[in-house]
Design goal:
The complex is a heterodimer of chains A (237) and B (430). Chain A is of the alpha/beta class and 237 residues long. Helices cover 38% and strands 21% of the residues of chain A. Chain A has helices at 13-25, 36-45, 62-72, 86-94, 107-121, 162-173, 181-187, 200-211; strands at residues 5-9, 29-33, 50-54, 77-81, 99-102, 135-138, 141-144, 149-151, 157-158, 178-180, 220-223, 227-230, 235-236. Chain A has a five-stranded parallel sheet with strand order 2-1-3-4-5, with helices on both faces. In chain A, strands 9-8-7-6-13 form a five-stranded antiparallel sheet, covered by helices on one side. A three-stranded antiparallel sheet of chain A has the order 10-12-11. In chain A, strand 4 (77-81), helix 4 and strand 5 (99-102) form a beta-alpha-beta unit. In chain A, helix 6 (162-173) packs across helix 8. Chain A is elongated. In chain A, 36% of the residues are buried. Helices cover 55% and strands 15% of the residues of chain B. Chain B contains eleven helices and eleven strands. In chain B, the strands form three sheets. In chain B, strands 6-8-9-11-10 form a five-stranded mixed sheet. A four-stranded antiparallel sheet of chain B has the order 1-4-3-2. The longest helix of chain B has 48 residues, at 200-247. The radius of gyration of chain B is 43 Å and the shape is rod-shaped. Chains A and B meet through helix 1, strand 9 and helix 8 of A and helix 6, helix 7, strand 5, helix 8 and helix 9 of B.
């Protein structure tokens, strides 16, 4: 199996070298670009499996680059920012980036995020392949995958921890099918950031509490001895 | 027109009205006439009284005068004239009386309205041949309207003056009240120029205030940009440092410590960024479930092993900027855990207001520093000595963020110990 190919777009030369080296040491094939123009050239020559894009490139707006990239390609993108503002993060995710890294980041974090994005995007799993759908609806609730945001039927944003979000996304990926506890534990750990040991049961009870707030019964059903199941119908936008 | 001009105008107006009212009263008094038979009767009384007293020996005159008096017509004799206060003279009435008894013209008959204190009756005097005086007073019902006029004339200028003064104050003070409100908001949001209304001095003040507000806003914006630029510029070198560290092959313990130092620097930059952003009201407000938000923060803390407890509803909708509320509650929780060791967060629905209380059992904040800690970069003495990381921006961020939501942050020390930080937010913006 060939090593996944990553295109790195970063204007600071030393940082570009250091990052490329770190990625190569972890088995990735890296091509580096210093500007948006160089990025287009590289992508034209040979497609990439993932793009790591610094959105604070001089001259071009990284956000615009991302927008243009998304028009022509579904390649997974992790964008990096030195500005760290909430607006940037949300905007980037809305435009279709897969993840966001704030400078300074450690090698371990970078590698883990790349790994997670590639896993989510690339490998076919026994789950129904998750198309890059922006919104999933059930029982009046709306889950925005890009923004990682859940809205109640009244339109209010309902905060979820990372693990709760992943768990809910897992349920929504297999509606009306029982999911075993082991599988759920695995599915709820796709993000490095939330390395909590909370048992699935606690997470499910929290989810239930939040989902039943709209006045109905939470649509998560316990199946004795096996696991849990989402009993609602799901609609993808 | 300036304030002195307006005051002068009011005084002149009132003086004029007073003068006019006075003239009217005088005129009316002059024109005052009784019904013919009343005038005739008065003339008769006066003539009889005069003739009788004239023929009475001076020693008996007082007594006789009293005997001649009736309930409605009283007569007094005195050797010297009373010091009569000048009051309104009744010219026409006098003419009426003289028409009936022309002889009274020879006795220096005077008729006037008595002062209001004396019930405003008609009074007067006649001079006897030996230069002693007969003073009389009579009650006349029709003088009643005249007296009403006199009362009005005294009261009217005062009432008018009060009314005009009140209007003057209102037009002057109302723009001032708006001004005071505006000074409270300086620096917090986009400056709005106040309309220049009111007297000239107040307009000048408002004009100067508007200019100052703009200057302050520019200063703050420039300062914010500087902070942001500093933060931004530091991140790339830090990113390089972090990666070099990862590559350097140092022993794991040292690597971890150095990584933590870099993390600390990153957190400082993040808090600086958050501080600058907290004064920003450019993002949109949204509907949020604040109970779920707070519960999530408490859950995240307790998942990390902290002693964190939530009380409140499972769900509570409100409208606000999610980042502002989330960051504020998160900062308060972190402070409580760090300085107090535990945290109890309560969300309460108070109708129009949402209340979020973050309580801990730590040492609290010294009473004399409760206000100071809301200023940026202020750190409590014990924080420095305990080598606590942070620039002292946690509370200022909360303060600014909540204020940009038109809410209030209130800090107090609980009687049983520990800090109580209470956020109150309007449920919907108005």
């Amino acid at each position: 199996m060939t090593a996944p190919s990553i295109v790195l777009v970063e204007d600071d030369a030393p940082l570009r070298t250091l990052t490329s080296r770190a990625l190569r040491e972890h088995g990735y094939h890296v091509r580096a670009a210093a500007t948006g123009a160089e990025m287009w050239v590289l992508l034209e020559n040979e497609p990439a499996d993932l793009v790591v894009l610094d959105i604070m490139l001089p001259g071009t707006s990284g956000i615009d680059l991302l927008r243009r990239l998304r028009k022509t390609s579904e390649v997974p993108v992790i964008f990096v920012s030195a500005r760290g503002s909430e607006e940037d993060r949300v905007l980037g995710l809305e435009l279709g980036a897969d993840d966001y890294l704030a400078k300074p980041f450690g090698t371990r974090e970078l590698i883990a995020r790349i790994g997670a994005v590639l896993r989510r995007h690339g490998a076919p799993t026994d789950d129904a392949a998750e198309p890059r759908s922006s919104e999933i609806r059930f029982l009046g609730w709306t889950l925005s995958v890009a923004r990682r945001e859940l809205r109640s039927p009244s339109g209010a944003i309902v905060d979820l921890t990372g693990a709760e979000f992943d768990l809910l996304a897992a349920f929504l990926g297999q509606p009306q099918r029982v999911i075993g506890r082991e599988r759920l534990i695995e599915l709820s750990r796709t993000r490095l950031a939330d390395s909590s040991d909370r048992s699935v049961d606690v997470l499910v009870s929290r989810l239930r509490r939040k989902l039943s707030a709209a006045g109905g019964q939470a649509p998560i059903v316990t199946v004795r001895g096996i696991g849990y199941m989402l009993s609602a119908e799901v609609e993808r936008a | 027109m300036g304030l002195p001009g307006r005051l002068l105008a009011i005084l002149l107006l009132v003086a004029t009205i007073d003068f006019v009212a006075n003239s009217i009263v005088l005129d009316r008094a002059n024109d005052f006439a009784l019904r013919e038979d009343d005038a005739a009767r008065m003339a008769e009384h006066l003539t009889i009284a005069y003739r009788v007293i004239e023929r009475t020996p001076p020693a008996n005159r007082s007594v006789v005068a009293r005997e001649l008096s009736t309930e409605r017509f009283s007569i007094r004799w005195s050797a010297q004239p009373d010091a009569l206060p000048t009051t309104v003279s009744l010219t026409r009435l006098r003419a009426q009386v003289l028409a009936f008894e022309p002889d009274l013209g020879k006795v220096d008959l005077r008729m006037h309205l008595l002062p209001l204190r004396g019930q405003g009756d008609i009074g007067g005097s006649m001079t006897l041949s030996d230069r002693s005086y007969l003073t009389f007073r009579t009650f006349s019902r029709s003088a009643w309207t005249l007296n009403l006029g006199r009362v009005g004339q005294t009261v009217l200028p005062t009432a008018l003056l009060a009314l005009l003064a009140w209007f003057l104050f209102r037009t002057t003070l109302r723009p001032l009240a708006t001004l005071v409100q505006a000074t409270r908001r300086v620096g917090s949001a986009q400056p709005q120029s106040l309309p220049e209304t009111g007297p000239a001095e107040v307009r000048e003040l408002i004009h100067a205030f508007n200019a100052m507000q703009l200057r302050i806003h520019e200063l703050l914006a420039r300062g914010s940009q500087t902070l942001l630029a500093i933060g931004h510029d530091l991140r790339t070198p830090l990113a390089r440092l972090q990666l070099r560290l990862d590559n350097a092959g140092i022993d794991p313990a040292a690597h971890q410590e150095m990584s933590r130092d870099i993390d600390e620097m990153r957190d400082l930059l993040a808090s600086l960024q958050a501080f600058v952003e907290s004064g920003d009201d450019r993002t949109a407000q949204q509907r949020i479930d604040v109970a779920a938000m707070v519960q999530t923060l408490v859950d995240a803390a307790s998942d990390r092993g902290a002693d964190a407890v939530y009380t409140g509803p499972d769900s509570l909708d409100m409208v606000a900027r999610p980042v502002a509320v989330r960051r504020s509650v998160s900062n308060l929780i972190e402070n409580a855990l760090h300085y107090g060791g535990n945290v109890r967060v309560a969300v309460r629905d108070r109708g129009d207001l949402i209340e979020i209380e973050v309580a801990d059992d730590g040492p609290g904040i010294p009473d004399d520093q409760l206000e100071e800690v809301l200023q940026p970069f202020v750190r409590l003495d014990n924080a420095r000595s305990r080598d606590t990381p942070g620039m002292g921006l946690g509370l200022p961020i909360v303060h600014r963020a909540i204020r940009s939501e038109n809410g209030r942050l209130h800090l107090r020390n609980a009687p049983q110990g520990g800090l109580r930080a209470t956020i109150r937010l309007p449920r919907v913006p108005d």
